[in-house]
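Email to the structure team, subject: 17027_t:CDS:1 model.

Hi all, the expression group asked for a predicted structure before they design truncation constructs. Nothing fancy, just the tokens so they can compare against earlier work. One-line instruction: predict 17027_t:CDS:1, return tokens.
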Amino acid sequence: MSLSLDIKFFLLFLLIIQVTPLNTRTFLDDVGCEIVQYPPEILGPVPHLKECLSTINSLVVYPGDPNYYESIKTFNCRYSYFPVVIIYVTNILDIQLSIYCANTLKIPVTARSGGHSFEEYGNGGRNGVMVIDVKEFNQVSIDKETNTAIIGAGNRLIHIYRKLNQAGFLFPAGTCLLVGIGGYATGGGYGFVARKYGMSSDNVISAEMVTANGSFLSSINSTHHSDLFFALRGAGNAGYGIITSFTFKIYPIPPIVTAINISYVSEQVDLLFMSIAKVAKNLSDKLTPDIRILSENDRLYIGSFYGVFLGSAEEAKSAVNELIELTEPAFTKFVELSWEEAVEKSPRFERQPFKSTSYVIAPPGLSREGLKFLRNFINNIECTTKALFYLMGGAINKFSVNSSAFMHRDSLYMLQMAMHLEGHNKEVQDKCFEKHLQFSQEFRAKYAIYFSYQNYIDRNLQNWETRYYGHHFPRLVETKRKYDPNNLFNWAQSIPIKFS
Ligand SMILES: Cc1cc2nc3c(=O)[nH]c(=O)nc-3n(C[C@H](O)[C@H](O)[C@H](O)COP(=O)(O)OP(=O)(O)OC[C@H]3O[C@@H](n4cnc5c(N)ncnc54)[C@H](O)[C@@H]3O)c2cc1C
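Reply from the structure team: attached below.
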């Protein structure tokens, strides 16, 4: 009997599947991110979990379920990590029950909001954890009398901006609209209006959270659980519990804003940075710009100064007049628009494999030598890399270093070196990655100060504890021990319960 061609192919396919070890089988998802099939070892606790979680109402996804791979897609797809269960919690009781099961079965727990962690900590950053996804906690309740809003911890920034906008308000948050507020505002949160109103965490008035013993703390603020309130604003995404909502200060939207784009050709980039060092101190806090340096390959404009000015084009021009006179840029554009348009115009980034590192640069800024070193790296690395300098100052410095766990005040820039790995094979990716780490070590030692920004989390960073949290680290460990003594919420860079 002869088999049809289709059946032969099918049998061949089955044979290939059988001889390929489970944990090395890979496939590409819709944006070309490689996914390795979950390793069978993670399945051990599944039957016990199914029994323990049988009474909860929320959606529970296990390895092997049809929507499992969809449920573990995070923004950075450099690695794949495989949770043992993902629970899309819809109410506090289900969070408490999930935590009870995790404690009973000794399974580590991680919270997930927007899935934009640089190191995929939203999936635990390793295999076999319980992910409590809070995306259903997406309320935005606005109080126009007190200029405050209660914001569910599972909201993406775009949803919050839109809701607030409808009521005539804004809040200090980032330019990447799909980031989750749960992981963003808890690690500082730099964004559109940081120099006007401070970091996002500076604008949190209170929070609600479920702790490791299942207690629901409904008012964490400057008078109740003030130790936790301190920790959550800067280290709240580092393993204290499952935050369910925040109360934020919100601000009236200005009638008009102006998008500024000032660009420079390669020869002008040094002058741009030397000039910013001069003008930054007196720059209006209505402007929170980032300054970018790109690779010289195939581009005309290598340096750019971007920002949204809270006011008219005329005011915006006058705010950057000194910089323009000093630098004579190759290109300038000032576009008046509504706040809503400015927000909506922000680029949406696709899920992708990448590696970022971060640095804090003190006034007066990078030396010429430092700039040369950085540009040399960007121009010669095979994987597209850009340097993003976020200008600090203004309201960020009005909050004291000891007001919260976010301690990077009085610096000139936070710098992100963002390396895109997509489109390269594994060998090239690994080479780029290694070169990035070498660059990082030397650049950090020679040209940056000691600290680093915790929202741009980097698992290769040595001494991350004090680089992210400085002298607050012992206090954060003490608070962690108080609220999570058995270290239920733990991963590579969560706050530990003791000093190692
Ligand atoms: C494309 C892109 C653009 C970005 N732009 C900016 C920017 O402009 N400014 C800036 O400051 N940062 C920016 N970031 C960094 C971003 O703020 C952090 O990666 C942040 O942690 C992502 O939060 P998330 O909720 O989306 O991620 P997730 O992966 O869901 O979570 C990140 C971390 O926060 C914890 N967490 C999440 N929700 C909760 C919760 N409810 N309770 C307790 N812990 C929680 C998770 O356990 C995890 O450790 C950007 C990141 C990306 C990928």
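The chain is about 30% helix and 20% strand. Confidence is low (pLDDT under 50) at residues 9-24. Ping us if the truncation boundaries need rechecking.
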